[in-house]
Known about the structure:
alpha+beta; 7 strands; globular
Amino acid sequence: MTQQPYGISCSYAGSGPIATRVDFQEDTSATFAAGEAAVPSVVKVSGLGDAAYGVSGFLAVLNGSYAIRISAPLSSLAQLETLARKLL
């Protein structure tokens, strides 16, 4: 776990060659939507937090005034949704 100016970042080595990273940070609906607009081929995820979007290997969830961003390049969007539901 690493404290960053914007929140907390956690990396998990796991058994694969690329670490999974989970960032917890303060966010607003406006900046969250701007991040979503910047991702090509984004998929909206319903029923997860206040808003959520992702692509294979990445998922972002807005929950109140905080966002969780999960980067796991070798994971499917469905796998990341399962992890995010446990974190919420």
